[in-house]
Amino acid sequence: MPEELLYQVALTRIPLIGDVIIRKLLETFGSAGDIFRARRRELERIETVGSIRANAICAFRDFSEAEKEIHFMKKYGIRALFCTQPDYPQRLHHCYDSPSLLYYKGTASLNVPRMVSVVGTRKPSAYGRRMCRQLTEELAAAQVTVVSGLAYGIDILAHETALQAGTPTIGVLAHGLDRIYPAAHKNTAVAMMAQGGLLTDFMSGHLPDRQNFPKRNRIVAGICDATIVIESGLQGGSLITADLAGGYHRDVFCIPGRADDPQAAGCNHLIKNNKAMLITGAADVLQMMGWEERSRPPVIQRELFLQLSDNEQKLMQLLREKSPRHVEELYLLTGLTGSEVAEAVFSMEMQSILKSLPGQRYELVI
């Protein structure tokens, strides 16, 4: 069995060592194996690690649970996605509390250009079901990968509609991949593994306990460009997911409902408090995300006359690789300060090189 994979799985099992701490350790040591091989003094010097956590790492000797998990993964064709690997979801990687290790069973890439989560109540009205089907079909037509949590109601309806429309759909689970919950959704889950996938940060054997669902929701929010809420009361997982998405600087959209409808109270609350943008269909999402299909003018001659600073050239290269991008991506991927990015963006807007979109996103227009 690959030694580094063993260390990666084992690292997540050490007491007191959570995902944020693992990120700090990896910044210094580079790999899970090098963390285990580090001396206690080296570990103690890392910010937020200290002597207690350093002792926990140095004292860890029981790799049997990690070995068992790797055998399970090989038997059922499950992939481990560690946060330092290129196939780890890069949108999620930019979230400060992202899981260091994910378990994935599926065929779809988790780094496609367009990913949107669709969430909502477990008991949708006829209106909610109709809007979910319509919206998901329209997203599928625009080649958007649909993500949800495989729960009753809006979640499973979004998955099923995506499958019927022929677009990949990803289910994020609050338990290990040795089970499907709810069991009633097993057939849909099996179909998703062939046209999308199932994703979790829980090892096999973990049950769908109540405390696992907020962790699941952070992946649903962080793995996507945007989150859409279709019918939600004032409490529940959908609003948690929306809050997480906003905290990750992702766009949040809501289908509005009647003012006196308790099932629409959550969506109306998000819209009223400027935590989500009101939409009536996928066309609104595509427009606000800058995903509308349109022809672009020839750029070769114009680019000959561009006079860009070093910082502007960095942004230009980044936006050529992918556009639009969130302003936080511009900070993280260029290494520029906030003021440097702001100055470069302003100059490029004045030259009509890029334009701003809702949700602090920027798109190349030449």
TrEMBL record:
Gene3D superfamilies: 3.40.50.450, Winged helix-like DNA-binding domain superfamily/Winged helix DNA-binding domain
InterPro entries assigned to the protein according to its UniProt record, in alphabetical order: DprA, DrpA_SLOG, RuvA_2-like, WH-like_DNA-bd_sf
Domain (Smf/DprA SLOG) ranges: 81-289
GO BP, one annotated term: DNA-mediated transformation
Pfam families for this protein: DNA_processg_A (PF02481)
Family that this chain belongs to: Belongs to the DprA/Smf family.
Record's protein name: DNA-protecting protein DprA
High-level lineage: Bacteria, Pseudomonadati, Bacteroidota, Chitinophagia, Chitinophagales
